[in-house]
Amino acid sequence: MVNEPFPGHPLFKTSLVHLATLAALNSVSVATLACEQLRMEPGGIVTAVTDGDTVILDDGRVIRMIGTQAPKLPLDRPDFPTWPLAPEARAALASVTLNQPVRLGFGGETVDRYGRVLAHVFVDGPQGEVWAQQAMVAQGLARVYSFPDNRACLDLLFAAEGRARLAGLGIWSDPYYSTRAANAPGDLLARAGQYELVEGRVLLAEQRGGRVYLNFGRFWKEDFTAVIEAPALRLFAQAGIDPLVLENALVRIRGWVDDRDGPRIEITHPEQIEVLATR
Question: Are 147 and 252 in a shared domain?
């Protein structure tokens, strides 16, 4: 049963019908419904667009659009490759935000270690207010990218991403961003150091020490594994989620792939796991 309601966190209760309903709503009303918990502040005028998820305001503040990751540009980093569709993503964000007044919405940590402001960006455009994050994800020019200390407004972003992915828009038509198969550990190892979406069925969910391991193969030193460390387990518990019930579930995991006894992704918060089917 695909996307069957799942006990616990609302993330596990998402259904295809719910996603379709959310996607069909007017973008302005959707932004209001999704982000009513945000603390809103005046922003200013966007004077520059750095890439597909970063803008600069007229007061000099650099705004990292939290909740999304757009294709990356080198931005003066030596030997850093331009990701496919990165120039297009910057152009798309500029078309929505450049020289426009914006409001900022805060739902978690407000500044990162680089001094960038972490905010949701709402553009006061000629056609009404536009939620910039949702607009980019809906075009397939960004994907959902969340943090344990910044998890607001994700439900609607997942809905927009799902619709864009199904339609093959933007990055979802490029193999660089393809969803990877959990049962192909060699392919995943080749993507070590990259942020990936990985789909597969959890063969075994077990707790050892202070960690939970979601194993996707029989050979844990070779196959793909998702690891939930103790700090993340506390967030799961706060949300009323027992990750051990994910055994045999078909899931989509998102995160950075590393190579430690085979390919693995560390889970730092529940939203990195989407349940696609429970059996």
Answer: no
Per-residue pLDDT, 171: 98
Q: Which domain holds residue 211?
A: 179-277
Q: For the chain, how many structural domains are there in total? A: 2
Task: Give the distance from CA 261 to its chain's centroid.
Answer: 25
pLDDT in tens, 202-230: 999 999 989 999 999 998 889 999 999 99
For CA atoms 94, 98, 100, 105, the dihedral sign is positive
In a domain, 156, yes or no: yes
- Predicted confidence band at 7 (pLDDT cuts at 50, 70, 90)? very low
**DSSP state string for 70-90:** PPP--TT-TTPPPPTTHHHHH
The model carries a pTM of: 0.86
Task: Put residue 201 in one of left, alpha, beta given phi > 0 → left and psi -120 to 50 → alpha.
Answer: beta
- Give residue 276's identity as a one-letter amino acid code: L
